[in-house]
């Protein structure tokens, strides 16, 4: 399926004084996509969002919205809407007035406006609250109204700036489903900014991991988690073991690896061109213990055990390296490995990623 | 209060505070009290009477002075509030702009300089320019020294207001002017009112500048009161002062409550 | 964007340039001009006015040192300084008590401190004229305890009026500084065996110092230029710089001399402001 391009970010850089907030960022967001900008605080994700909204201008590069260059377009002429982190609901207006605000500015006539406001209130299940003011609402309700207000003018792209961060844990979970649902229903392209990897993996069609102002990797949630391309991504998303190794030979997307432990195997790689030292990433849950040890099998000693409820985390020492191993507590015998016990551990070739340096 | 274990309690401080507030309000109370004195001598109480208020309200010269003061205060307040509003808009939305601190100092300059020096300076300038319309002179000078009093509450209000509201307005297709009219202005309005009222009180109460710049027909209320004091104290003077005190206190209270409330909501 | 900024600030700059900055330059120019024959001044360079502050001509036209004006400057500094110190001494306990009240009481008391500030200066000074006068209750009390003469028209009367006029400007910044104090600091002071007074001296006072310094500037600067207190409570005989300037533009009609005194007053104010700016800047660096 080929989809149209919603937002194209061309080689965008942004400097604030000496600080490089964004460094040659370049990617394309498709129509009808739930696209997430994920990264630690200060990675430039909010700056990028504000550029698309029109609140910041790139120092270099440009942004194209549905084929139209928007660099010269002020914020109030861009057909994108934002759900602010603080929601920024106008405190002196009722909810209905808040939702109607954008429609008025677009010159919609009154009957059409009223119909749209009613429709939006219905969409976010807030119809009985139409004439309330924002300070009479709970956090989750404000969030819904902010969404309704931003969706009402039928924007081409909806920008969401960490909209769930002000909510408590339970509500956040429920709002994730609602957001995803809304995106499917409206078919509008969502650009979602968050620092919460779980949120990103759960909701997104594609994720762009930003770090130190640069795009670290773009891909589906599974690609980002299972096939991290560099150390930053592997480290930022989930937990992993980093292993030093030697690349002996490269054959396209496969590389022949030799580890200090003496194992030799093929692993997936991307971007490496010549043999030499490399870093491997191996997720803790991809290492099997004892009867689950398959593929490349080693012997090690359990150094620590942390019982986490659904999982138990072990640190296993093998040949001078410490590996973190996570084991689902499917049956209670998972408890039975004791600290100091010698165990077999194993992993399959395809679980290992060779990281670009 | 007198718990010896409370380390925050200092014996004597409470008493000092009580005496302090007594001292702060006693003079005002004395002025008001003797305005109801029937006797011609201010400080010799002989009985209650409202006759000095009647005398004050039928005093033509006083009414003329009041009219001058009100005219000057209304015009100067409007000018000062507009100047302050426009400066506050720029200064609180451009934290990193050049000359920001300098501009802020310039707006507040009247607070930093002794009023007598500024008054003298204006007098020399106006007479050099041949600018001799007393009312206009007062309005120009009052506009200047009222500006910081209008500026400070507006500025505080703008700083307390999140920029998100303005960005949200623009995000929802409001032109800069619409965003100002429908979002920014309604949200800072309490600050604007508070600033305008404080400017008004400051203009109404001014003596030093008005005394130097006033010409024959433009005696303001405080200048008129000064003239009366020079002639000797009478209960009528107290009645006039009482009216001025009440007006000032009511307007200032209104302004301070408005300002405090708007800060809490922001 | 840029032009919006320029237009937004323009009115303020024009107003302040036109009514303050340019006029002050003209004051500087007039202070070195000739005195006009019928009052006013003539545009001839002549720094006589500054000489007049220190010297006068005797009958033979010789210059003799004359402390007449110097004593006025001295009295101004002394009274303004005393006002500042008294305000500090009063403001500390008062601001402390206010700052330790519950929030509602606190807001009410601060409002009560500010309120008299909005009453016309002339009315406030007039009130003291009544109270201190021979018929006023303080005046009568004075005679009852055997005091002689009148309380009015003395430096003491002026001082009372000045402290009364400017005290809110001291209480507010001191209150702000004390309110920021963490109450746990006082408990820590007591916990470490400090008596109340040791804690006051070694914990509260140093941490309140910025507020006191800010208040000192706010009180001292207007006190230097005060006009009404010397005119009414000082009876015009106890001149201060403000009244001296005022007289030169009123009855005495010596504009260049008045301008020179005004400039000396300005210089004193600027020195205070510069010291204050340097103090607050060095603090910023340390914090």
TrEMBL record, chain A:
Its name, as the record gives it, is Spermidine/putrescine import ATP-binding protein PotA
Source domain of life: Bacteria
Complexes and interactors: The complex is composed of two ATP-binding proteins (PotA), two transmembrane proteins (PotB and PotC) and a solute-binding protein (PotD).
Q: Name one GO biological process term.
A: putrescine transport
Family, according to the entry, reads as follows: Belongs to the ABC transporter superfamily. Spermidine/putrescine importer (TC 3.A.1.11.1) family.
Q: Single GO cellular component annotation?
A: ATP-binding cassette (ABC) transporter complex
- Pfam family for this entry, one: ABC_tran
Q: Where in this chain does the record put each ABC transporter domain?
A: 7-237
The molecular function terms of the Gene Ontology recorded here are: ABC-type polyamine transporter activity; ATP binding; ATP hydrolysis activity
Which reactions are catalysed by this chain?
Answer: ATP + H2O + polyamine-[polyamine-binding protein]Side 1 = ADP + phosphate + polyamineSide 2 + [polyamine-binding protein]Side 1
Q: Which NCBIfam families match?
A: potA (TIGR01187)
EC number of the protein: 7.6.2.11
For this UniProt record, give its keywords in alphabetical order, as a comma-separated list.
Answer: ATP-binding, Cell membrane, Membrane, Nucleotide-binding, Translocase, Transport
Organism (species) = Alloyangia pacifica
Q: What does this protein do?
A: Part of the ABC transporter complex PotABCD involved in spermidine/putrescine import. Responsible for energy coupling to the transport system.
Automatic annotation (TrEMBL), chain B:
Biological source species: Alloyangia pacifica
Identify the residues that the record assigns to the ABC transmembrane type-1 domain, covering every copy. 66-255
PANTHER family recorded = PUTRESCINE TRANSPORT SYSTEM PERMEASE PROTEIN POTI, SPERMIDINE_PUTRESCINE TRANSPORT SYSTEM PERMEASE PROTEIN POTC
Record keywords: Membrane included?
yes
Q: Indicate the transmembrane segments per the record.
A: 12-36, 68-91, 111-129, 135-154, 183-202, 239-260
What is the name attached to this protein's record? Spermidine/putrescine transport system permease protein PotC
Q: Which PROSITE patterns match?
A: ABC_TM1
Cellular localization per UniProt: Cell inner membrane; Cell membrane
Record function comment: Required for the activity of the bacterial periplasmic transport system of putrescine and spermidine.
Give the family this protein belongs to, as stated in its UniProt record: Belongs to the binding-protein-dependent transport system permease family. CysTW subfamily.
Q: What is its main location?
A: membrane
Automatic annotation (TrEMBL), chain C:
InterPro entries under this entry?
MetI-like, MetI-like_sf
- The lineage's top-level taxon is Bacteria
What are the entry keywords? Cell membrane, Membrane, Transmembrane, Transmembrane helix, Transport
What's one Pfam family here? Answer: BPD_transp_1
Where in the numbering of this chain does the ABC transmembrane type-1 domain appear?
A: 73-276
Membrane topology type: Multi-pass membrane protein
The record lists the membrane-crossing segments as 12-33, 72-96, 108-131, 151-178, 203-224, 257-277
Q: Name one GO cellular component term.
A: plasma membrane
Q: Localized where?
A: Cell membrane
For whether the record's keyword set contains Transmembrane, the answer is yes
Report the main location listed first in the record.
Answer: membrane
Q: A single GO BP annotation from the record? A: transmembrane transport
Q: Which family does it belong to?
A: Belongs to the binding-protein-dependent transport system permease family. CysTW subfamily.
PANTHER family xref list = INNER MEMBRANE ABC TRANSPORTER PERMEASE PROTEIN YDCU-RELATED, INNER MEMBRANE ABC TRANSPORTER PERMEASE PROTEIN YDCU-RELATED-RELATED
In Swiss-Prot or TrEMBL terms, this protein is called Spermidine/putrescine transport system permease protein
Which species? Alloyangia pacifica
């Amino acid at each position: 399926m080929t989809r149209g391009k919603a937002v194209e970010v061309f080689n965008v850089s942004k400097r604030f004084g000496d600080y490089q907030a964004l460094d040659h960022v370049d990617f394309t967001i498709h129509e009808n996509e739930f696209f997430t900008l994920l990264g630690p605080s200060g990675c430039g994700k909010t700056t990028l969002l504000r550029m698309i909204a029109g609140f910041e201008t790139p120092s270099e590069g440009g942004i194209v919205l549905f084929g139209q260059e928007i660099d010269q377009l002020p914020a109030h002429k861009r057909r994108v809407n934002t759900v602010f982190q603080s929601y920024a609901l106008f405190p002196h207006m009722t909810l209905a007035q808040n939702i109607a605000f954008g429609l008025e500015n677009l010159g919609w006539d009154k009957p059409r406006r009223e119909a749209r406001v009613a429709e939006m209130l219905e969409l976010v299940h807030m119809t009985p609250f139409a004439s309330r003011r924002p300070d009479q609402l709970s956090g989750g309700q404000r969030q819904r109204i902010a969404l309704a207000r931003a969706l009402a003018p039928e924007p081409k792209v909806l920008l969401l700036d960490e909209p769930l961060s002000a909510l408590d844990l339970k509500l956040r979970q429920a709002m994730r489903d609602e957001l995803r649902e809304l995106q499917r229903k409206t078919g509008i392209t969502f650009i979602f900014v968050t620092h919460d990897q779980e949120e990103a993996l759960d909701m997104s069609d594609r994720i762009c991991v930003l770090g130190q102002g640069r795009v670290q990797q773009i891909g589906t949630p599974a690609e980002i988690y299972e096939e991290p391309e560099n150390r930053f991504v592997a480290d930022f998303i989930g937990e992993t073991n980093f292993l030093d190794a030697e690349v002996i030979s490269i054959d396209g997307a496969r590389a022949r690896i030799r580890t200090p432990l003496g194992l030799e195997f093929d692993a997936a790689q991307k971007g490496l061109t010549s043999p030499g030292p490399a870093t491997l990433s191996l997720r803790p849950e991809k290492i099997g213990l004892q009867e689950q040890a398959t593929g490349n099998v080693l012997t090690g000693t359990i150094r620590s055990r942390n019982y986490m409820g659904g999982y138990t985390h072990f640190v296993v020492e093998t040949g001078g390296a410490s590996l973190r191993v996570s084991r689902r507590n499917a049956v209670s015998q998972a408890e039975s490995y004791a600290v100091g016990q010698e165990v077999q551990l194993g992993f399959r070739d395809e679980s290992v990623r060779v990281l670009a340096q | 209060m007198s718990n010896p274990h409370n380390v925050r309690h200092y014996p004597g401080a409470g008493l000092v505070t009580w005496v302090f507030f007594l001292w702060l309000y006693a003079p005002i109370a004395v002025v008001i009290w003797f305005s109801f004195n029937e006797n011609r001598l201010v400080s010799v109480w002989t009985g209650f009477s409202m006759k000095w208020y009647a005398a004050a309200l039928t005093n033509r010269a006083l009414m003329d002075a009041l009219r001058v003061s009100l005219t000057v205060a209304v015009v100067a307040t409007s000018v000062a509030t507009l100047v302050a509003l426009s400066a506050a808009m720029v200064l609180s939305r451009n934290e990193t702009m050049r000359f920001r601190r300098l501009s802020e100092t310039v707006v507040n300059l009247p607070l930093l300089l002794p009023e007598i020096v500024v008054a003298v300076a204006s007098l020399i300038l106006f007479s050099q320019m041949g600018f001799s319309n007393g009312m206009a002179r007062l309005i120009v000078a009052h506009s200047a020294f009222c500006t910081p009093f209008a500026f400070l509450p507006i500025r505080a209000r703008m700083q307390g207001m999140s920029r998100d509201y303005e960005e949200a307005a623009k995000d929802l297709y409001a032109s800069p002017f619409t965003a100002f009219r429908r979002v920014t202005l309604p949200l800072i309005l309490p600050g604007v009112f508070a600033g305008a009222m404080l400017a008004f009180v400051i203009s109404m109460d001014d003596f030093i500048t008005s005394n130097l710049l006033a010409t024959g027909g433009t005696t303001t209320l405080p200048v008129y009161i000064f003239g009366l004091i020079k002639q000797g104290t009478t209960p009528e003077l107290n009645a006039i002062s009482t009216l001025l005190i009440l007006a000032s206190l009511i307007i200032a209270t209104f302004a301070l409550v408005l300002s405090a409330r708007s800060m809490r909501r922001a | 964007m840029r032009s919006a900024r320029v237009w937004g600030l323009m009115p303020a700059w024009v107003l302040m340039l036109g009514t303050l900055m340019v006029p002050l330059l003209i004051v500087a120019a007039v202070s070195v001009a000739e005195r006009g024959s019928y009052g006013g001044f003539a545009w001839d360079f002549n720094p006589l006015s500054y000489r007049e502050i220190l010297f006068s001509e005797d009958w033979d036209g010789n210059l003799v040192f004359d402390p007449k004006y110097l004593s006025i400057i001295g009295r101004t500094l002394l009274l303004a300084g005393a006002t500042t110190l008294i305000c500090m001494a009063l403001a500390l306990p008062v601001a402390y008590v206010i700052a330790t009240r519950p929030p509602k009481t606190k807001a009410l008391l601060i409002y009560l401190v500010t309120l008299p500030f909005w009453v016309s200066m002339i009315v406030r000074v007039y009130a003291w004229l009544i109270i201190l006068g021979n018929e006023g209750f303080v005046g009568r009390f004075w005679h009852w305890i055997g005091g002689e003469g009148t309380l009015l028209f003395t430096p003491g009367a002026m001082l009372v009026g000045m402290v009364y006029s400017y005290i809110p400007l001291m209480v507010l910044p001191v209150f702000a500084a004390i309110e920021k104090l963490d109450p746990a600091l006082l408990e820590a002071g007591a916990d470490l065996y400090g008596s109340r007074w040791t804690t006051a001296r070694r914990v509260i006072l140093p941490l309140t110092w910025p507020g006191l310094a800010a208040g000192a500037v706010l009180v001292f600067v207007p006190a230097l230029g005060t006009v009404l207190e010397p005119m009414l409570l000082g009876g015009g005989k106890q001149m201060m710089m403000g009244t001296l300037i005022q007289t030169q533009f009123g009855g005495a009609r010596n504009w260049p001399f008045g301008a020179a005194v005004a400039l000396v007053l300005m210089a004193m104010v600027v020195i205070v402001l510069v010291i204050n700016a340097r103090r607050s800047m060095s603090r910023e660096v340390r914090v």
